[in-house]
Amino acid sequence: MTDTRDEFETSAASTGPPPLLRFVAAKAGGGVVSLFLVAVLGFFLFRVLPGDPARTMTRSTPVSAEQLAALRHRFGLDQPLYLQFRDFVIDLLHGDLGTSYIYNRPVAELILERVGPTVLLVGTATVLAVLVGLWMGARAAWHQGGPVDRWFTSVGLTLWSVPTFWLGLLALMAFGVGVGPLPGLFPVAGMSSANVPAGVVPHVLDVAHHLVLPCLTLVAVIYAQFMMVMRTSLLEEMGAEYLTTARAKGLREDLVRRRHAVPNALLPTVTLIFLHLGLVVAGAITVETVFSWPGLGLLTYEALRVPDLPLLQGTFIVLAGSVIVMNVLAELVYRLLDPRVRDS
Amino acid sequence: MTPILRLDGVSVTYRGEDGPHRAVVDANLTLRPGATLGLAGESGCGKTSLALAVLRLLPRSARVDGTILLDGHDIERLTWGELRAARWTSASVVFQGAMHALNPVRTVAEQIAEPIRLHSPERPAAARVRARVTELLEQVELPGARRDAYPHELSGGQRQRVMIAMALACDPRLIIADEPTTALDVVVQAQVLALLRRLVSERGIALLMISHDLSVLAASCRCLGVMYRGRLVEEGPARQLVATPEHEHTRALAAAFPTIGDEGSRYPGAGEPGESAGGVRGSLLAAEGVSVEFGDRYRNRVRAVRDVDLEVMGDEILALVGQSGSGKTTLARTLLGLCPPNAGTVYYEGRPLATSGRELRAFRGSVQLVLQDPTGALNPKHTVYEAVAEGLRVHGCADDEAVRVREALEAAELRPAEEFTARFPHELSGGQRQRVVIAGALVLRPRVLVADEPVASLDATVRGEILALLLRLRRERGLSALVITHDLGLAWNIADRVAVMRSGEIVETGPVERVLTEPRHDYTKELLAAVPSFEGSVS
């Protein structure tokens, strides 16, 4: 037996990377199918709800039977279910989500209007929570059992367990309305004030000012999950043998952590982060309601109270859709981060 | 000449929940530049603690007493900065790279380049680092094209070569190799050992090699030391230590690696089929023209098993040997009815294997599987009793459960059985766990035991006990066994017949004495040549 002989078992991976395009196409295809199923589910789910939409629409005013019939005809409610479904699908393919009962405007238009504020609020909060959570989780795990770990973990878990609306109300009272001698520092409702001088900069500052309280409330409630997942995942990596290799090479402790431990520990958090990004559009219904933030969450809340079926159906499809899209993205990002997934 | 490494009365003590645990007690050794020393011992004997202490890599719970002089410097007196500078430049480590010593998300080139960049006085040019990595990969006989591979894309042997390239990166004067070939199969092991031997002798690097496998050390090191319970119990030139071991533990280690062809290293009863009490003659479990194909991720068909004929006779221990990837585990799964063959038939007691229903269940009861790693095979949340009784419950024979579990435990030599039933796997030693796995198989009163590397993860002394148990079960119960292994020594120890498998085909079958002493097929000869032997010690 000589050294030069090639080894018996050789890796199959040397034949080149599997086609990325096919993977993306397959995942995207799967996403489209899920999206269609969600639309179908949304349609029938809201049709089996008890109650007559025509009556809810005219709850406050007395109407005759003819008027009700006219209303039903206008919204297509007098058609058999399968015809309604056919129209719904055709409209959906044209990007038409129907007309809201309460606003009397196209649902798609309403949703488009509200998406911006929600993405701004929940997107900012999620990004902050992810950064803060991952950093704290890494620190806590590296100093496991120490004071840093104990403080980070207990504070994080306490905030996580607090009901969002309650924390929001507290923040609203303490920093919005003002307590005792403390003046209200931040606006209590909405996304912008009426009397702001014209121009981009004052407008941005005004929105940012409005953003502070709802955003911090959300961050406080959600960052702990990123922290805990990061902490657990890093703790699992900390016994890994490749860290001993890295230390033996002469790397400083913080380089061992940054270059070797954290990149591996990040992998499990990716799924969680993207699941959350999917829920960004869903907004935080409670936070948006407490702070009257004009986003999708507030819109959903309003639609639920009526109930405004086309609007609910529309928000339902958009929310589910964003979760599906983010899941597909998560799989793609995971492939970039973990070479082992790339080949399987 | 100053020794490259000198240990003076070194002890390593771990603080534990149940008091201090002394892993290394008063170890003394001296390693001159270019010398090679092998340190042998079972798991837990303190050999790895000793190696890690040299670069102060032990966890915080460990305390080191005595002096360790690395290249003339007392490493306990170095500042962290000086220590980091000494790491990898004075001494580097070859860990068991086949497993987890490489970072899974970084390419091998990055990992080899890391110490080069780290220990250069000024920032080296990227092109120079690249050239150095290519040079190192060439030295370990890896094609340069593999530089951008990730560890999981390489075979075990290739990963170990990467570890060696990495260890050479900063031209150290000492290399510590901790189980460098464990988990590699014989042929690859021989290649890696030859490579390591050649590189250290060419460069005059001192080598401290640690292994549980005395034969691997004897084949690579001039001097050997044997550790037992934290103490260095015997030390001397390899040849002498192996030929005339003085300490009884050295003898036990040497016995675990039998000299093939030496009648004295066969266990009593081996090679004497058909002499048991209740044994049945004739074919018990047989494969006829069996082929198994898999689709890989590129949708290519891989033929794992090709047109194999194999027979396990009643009252016989048959060893199926071959390298990893030769298809022996797939063949065993097919014989167990766990993996349907694409062609050919499996017969049990002369009848084709049922594919479903009651008959298949009865068959599964009479042919039982024992896996390599007892820690993985046992549910950590189940007691020993639960683990053993599970098979009975699955097969619906629950009437005399407690009695049968006790019988099985005692048959597996866990006596008294009452002492073990309520315990959990983590409270048992490795050997006891493997006995629990075997008891779990015995409880169904099988006719054939299929054992996949049954002792590969066990220590030398425990290995002997488990092998003796297999032979005793054959003698007393007429239990046949199909033992799958890459270890020809194991086949020599206990088997009656041996079948050699390569690339999915059986290339040679016959009685152990004939096949292993007068091999006919070239591949069998190759396998035998790769077994590290004391005769092959460097002179």
Describe the structure.
- The complex is a heterodimer of chains A (344) and B (539).
- Chain A has a domain at 111-342: MetI-like fold (Orthogonal Bundle), CATH 1.10.3720.10.
- Chain A is built from 15 helices and no strands.
- Chain A has helices at residues 20-47, 53-57, 65-74, 81-93, 107-142, 147-161, 164-178, 200-238, 241-248, 253-265, 267-280, 285-290, 296-305, 309-337, 339-342.
- The radius of gyration of chain A is 26 Å and the shape is globular.
- Chain A starts with 19 loop residues before the first helix and ends with a helix.
- By secondary structure, chain B is of the alpha/beta class.
- Helices cover 36% and strands 24% of the residues of chain B.
- Chain B is built from 20 helices and 20 strands.
- In chain B, the strands form four sheets. A six-stranded mixed β-sheet of chain B has the order 6-7-8-3-9-10, with helices on both faces. Chain B has a six-stranded mixed β-sheet with strand order 16-17-18-13-19-20, with helices on both faces.
- In chain B, a hairpin with a 2-residue loop joins strand 19 (497-502) and strand 20.
- The longest helix of chain B is centred in the middle third of the chain and has 18 residues, at 186-203.
- Chain B is globular, with a radius of gyration of 25 Å.
